[in-house]
Amino acid sequence: MGKTANTSVRDLLFGDLWDYAPAPESRDHLTIHERYGHFIDGKFVEGEDHFPSINPATEEQLFEVASADEATVDLAVKAARKAYDKVWGKMPGSERAKYLYRIARMIQEKARALAVAESLDGGKPIKESRDVDIPLAAAHFFYYAGWADKLEYALPGASPSPIGVAGQIIPWNFPLLMAAWKIAPALAAGNTIVIKPAETTPLTAMMLAEIIQEADLPPGVVNIVNGAGQTGAAIVNHPDIDKIAFTGSTDVGKIIQRALAGSRKKLTLELGGKGANIIFDDASLDQAVEGIINGIFFNQGHVCCAGSRLLVQENIADELMHKLRHRVSTLIVGDPLDKNTDVGAINSREQLLRIQELVAAGKDEGAQIFQPSSPLPEKGFFFKPTVFTEVTPSHRIAREEIFGPVLSVLTFRTPEEAIEKANNTPYGLACGVWTDKGSRLFRVANALKCGIVWGNTYNRFDPTSPFGGYKESGFGREGGLHGLLPYLEVR
Amino acid sequence: MAKSTPTRLRVLKTFKLYIGGAFPRTESGRFLQEHNPKGQLVANFCRASRKDLRNSVVAARKAQPGWAGRTPFNRAQILYRMAEVLESRRESFESALAERAGIKSADAQAEVDAAIDRLVWYAGWADKFVQIMGTTNPVASPHFNITSPEPTGVVTAFAPRSAPLLGLITAIAPVIVSGNALVLVVENEHPSIAIDLAEVFHCSDLPGGVVNILTGLREELVPHAAKHMDIDAIATFDATDEERRLIALEAAESVKRVHNFESPAKHDWAQASAQSPYNILPFVEFKTAWHPIESGAAMGAKY
Amino acid sequence: MTHAFVVPRVPSVDAVAVEERAAKFRTRSIKKDAKIKGLKLVASMIDLTTLEGMDTPGKVQMLCQKAISPGSGCPQVAAICVYPTLVPVAKAALKGTSIKVASVATYFPSGQASLKERTDEVRRAVEAGADEIDMVISRGDFLAGHYAKIDEEIRATREACGPAHLKVILETGELQTYDNVRLASQIAIDAGAHFIKTSTGKVSPGATMPVTLVMLEAIRDHFINTGKMVGMKPAGGIRDSKLAMHYLAMVKETLGDAWLSPDWFRFGASSLLNDVLMQLEKQSTGRYHSDRYLSLS
Predict the structure, then answer these.
(1) Which subunits count as partners of chain A given 3+ CB pairs below 8 Å?
(2) Is B132 on the interface with A (CB under 8 A)?
(3) What are the beta bridge partners of residue C104?
(4) Which of A104, C8, C154, C275 could form a disulfide with C186 if both were Cys (CB 3.0 to 4.6 A apart)?
(5) Number of separate domains in chain C
(6) Looking at domain B31-292, what is its CATH homologous superfamily?
């Protein structure tokens, strides 16, 4: 047996003695068209004003996608209205349910192609699109399918009815999953929809349109229009839409809330966050490290509920940081299609620039930066997993949502201080609490002003579990029984 | 003023505001006048200013955590206590409704009945709405997962323009039952009744600041409430399109929750349809909590 | 031996999260060159084991031959692991090779004997030529909270080992909780174990990835705190090479490159070697293999 290592070296060596060879997922079984238009009234329609969609890992163009103007949005809304009045609104819930089950099944059947598409178009690691995004999207349809004919049991004493035509705008961080979060409950409740995928990630939504067509969903029940902010504005401002559901940045959410002023449209908003992940000194530390990693590096940190503020009890901060630095050093950053990639590509150049700007601000304001030494791919939009220590609550990196793989570490001394710091933000989406002490966990969970509290875990999602924020993180819930409420008239 | 006996001069009440468990005059020193249907002056009352609103929000913010921290059982008892005290003063409210608002005696009695009963009804929800609106979520992973409603925080409500007593109860009870603190802005024909009601609350064990009542002009206070960054939610009754527009426009700055109620038709105020646990819903936030459940299976355990 | 034992303070372990983490290593995709290199590394880390009541010199000799010439371009295993009575047979068969002889002593697998009887057995095994001793701890004493006795028996066994290296079997399948595994690991490390080992192979479950991960974390923290390295040996139930390579991935990502060596990591296994050989054949010929072409072991 070997000699004992030099006692002065206490750092582990994560080197290349045995590297995993490249293990790229094949993209052979995925067909990408050269151009995508829109999906309106059950048909794929040509669009105008095409713009390129880029693979963020290679900066190569994948396809072109159209941009819907007001007239195109109007066509989609008309189709949705007609489908609501003539077909979907009148259809027995049990029949609606079966369409949703069909869609769920077809997503499962095409799971592999969808996962590859998601990683190509958005840059997320294939293991996440394969193990999280796509299965959860299917599960959402499956879950809400079952509600379609049971709505009267969802709300005791109320007789719920659908709202009508819903306009839905979704972000680029979980393209298909966000589409499922929006479409499944809306349809289960009896509404028809016009949905706009994010302009950088429309691919899986268009593949979902193919599934919807194959599933024989009545034309006009789901209409998908592509485009950027202007298309979104056309949806928000369309007079014949009854409800807007938006997931995205708090800034845009506020614009939408203002835009609806004076209208009678209903609104739900799922916006940004600056989640605190709180580690008490009695926590299971090695598992807490995993929770920290999962909290901030899952999906490159492009997660509204990311645990982007780490609050560590001061007496364990050194020990925990040591473990965390080791763990960050083992993350494999690179080709999103490689099955071993832990952190993929940043979704767009624009987002990369925003991350770089905030990281520069963190350095300027005096926080200490840690990044692993392994190099990044030469092409594509990548950013190293980054941990900032010596961050104070007034630093920009402690207050602003970075939406990237950047963790800001703060310390606290007492539970009281932890709660105070965690709540010291206009956001209120998610927090994590790590402690072995049950009564403390409940105390802190109760005191946190946020919609999701992960106790001794982080970034878990499930179709049965409501998701949404307090304060400037938005209002309304998606998922679970509560996810039906925004799509029902309750009276 | 309304009739006084020739032999003894009646003592009149000064109708002040109700802020933080105290009855201050408006800091602005301004007043408005309330008349009975015959056109006779029945009261001078305060025309609350934006600073009164600001002070009320401060009082509400201060009171809210403690109120939310009460056990639901305790909040239920306090709402019930409010009903008890209102019942004990019912004649006073009946005569106020009749004399000041010109409501027929039978209707006044019915409104007081309904107001008391509605308080009792909402009192009962304090420790039940969580059970109706909360869920245990059977997630497909080894985690325990529950969702339960929590109060949104500080709510400003613009009271109904009709039903001078029952309308207030209908606006107040569903907001505070969950643990919110409320700033109620009253602009109706007979706001003095709101201040009478404040006196009921004041001796009902309701902590100061949980309900704050401002009489005044909506037109003046709506913009300030909508812009206030420390108000979490706004409720309106009978809002005009312009009020709705203005509130939504400004509420966006802090992503306030806004809920607009329509008052029922005059004779429907007392109906069961005018009360609902779903009226609690716009002023709660749903918190979902996760925790792992160890299975032991990997270690060979059967349980 | 005067030694004041204090129960070590160890972090608690969250079962769900550790199982989740361990499961993630199973998604590591190990292809092409990495696979060939990984397979060879696995083979070189095997303690090729036979621990049956029906073991005979013939069986042990057969095993030793397999260890010496595994074929298919496969490196030799790290050690042969047998009962103490068969140590001389193994020692003779492996003469002139660098393959070690390991022996399970201390009244394996139950450990139900007096400490003297157990250490006497260790001494006999070492005298007979064992290079490495795999001892069992007294799980009964551990579960009863008599941690000082565990400390004492390991120290005594280490002393009895003399020049031989000591692997301490925790029998994690009987400890039942990850917290117990973590504590037992630390006690064993503190008492002088060269290796800590999951299982005897006689209790189900044997080695699992989450249990091994907890033990690796104990080793890692000990290194960070003291600079001293301790080895790890999962044993029992690791039969296929893909699983073994996922164990290696776990070692690589938990302890780093320094532990990717038979000096610091071993697999206690009887049938793993043949699966490695089949996979190596597949890599070189492109054909899926059949065990009818492989010698028994």
Answers:
(1) B, C
(2) yes
(3) C134
(4) C8
(5) 1
(6) Aldehyde Dehydrogenase; Chain A, domain 1 (3.40.605.10)
Catalytic site residue from C35, C100, C233, C252: C233
| Mean pLDDT across chain A | 96
pLDDT at B3: 56
Q: Is the peptide bond before C163 cis (omega within 30 degrees of 0)?
A: no
Residue A454 CB contacts under 8 Å (≥ 6 apart), including other chains: A291, A430, A431, A432, A433, A460, B289, B290
Is the model's pLDDT at C217 over the cut of 70?
Answer: yes
Question: What is the pTM assigned to this prediction?
Answer: 0.95
Digit-coded pLDDT (tens) for A146-163 = 999 999 999 989 989 999
Q: Where are the alpha helices (DSSP H) in A67-155?
A: 70-83, 93-109, 111-122, 126-128, 134-147, 151-154
- Span B98-122, mean pLDDT? 97
Active site residue C233: yes
The highest-level CATH class for domain A276-455 is alpha beta
Summarize pLDDT for A162-178 with one digit per residue, the tens: 999 999 999 999 999 99
Q: How many CB atoms lie within 10 A of CB B282?
A: 19
Q: Is C59 one of the catalytic residues?
A: no
Chain A, nearest residue to B145 by Cα: A465
Distance CA B279, CA B286 (A): 15
Contacts of C173 in chain B (CB under 8 A): 299-300
Q: Which domain holds residue C161?
A: 15-283
Chains contacting B with at least 3 CB pairs below 8 Å?
A: A, C
Q: Using the beta-carbon criterion (under 8 Å), do C32 and A436 form an inter-chain contact?
A: no
CB-count exposure of residue A330 (10 Å: 0-12, 13-18, 19+): middle
Q: How many CB atoms lie within 10 A of CB C15?
A: 24
CATH classification for the domain delimited by A35-271+471-489, as one of 3.10.50.40, 3.30.70.890, 3.40.605.10, 3.40.50.261: 3.40.605.10
pLDDT at residue A3 is higher than 70: no
CATH number of residue C222's parent domain? 3.20.20.70
Tell me the chain C residues in contact with residue A284 when contact means C-beta distances shorter than 8 Å.
Answer: 11-14, 17-18
Q: By CB neighbour count within 10 A (0-12 exposed, 13-18 middle, 19+ buried), where does A410 fall? A: buried
Taking residues B81-94, report their average pLDDT: 98
Q: Band of the pLDDT at B4, cuts 50, 70, 90? A: low
* CB-defined contacts A:B, below 8 A: 122
Contact C258 A13 (CB under 8 A): yes
CB spacing of A7 vs C228 below 8 angstroms:
yes
Q: What are phi and psi of C134, to 5 degrees?
A: -105, 105
Contact A452 B288 (CB under 8 A): yes
Look at residue B6 in the predicted model and tell me its pLDDT.
73
Which position among A25, A270, A401, A472 bears the catalytic label? A270
A305 among known catalytic residues: no
Partners of residue B246 in chain A, C-beta under 8 Å:
261
A455: pLDDT strictly greater than 80: yes
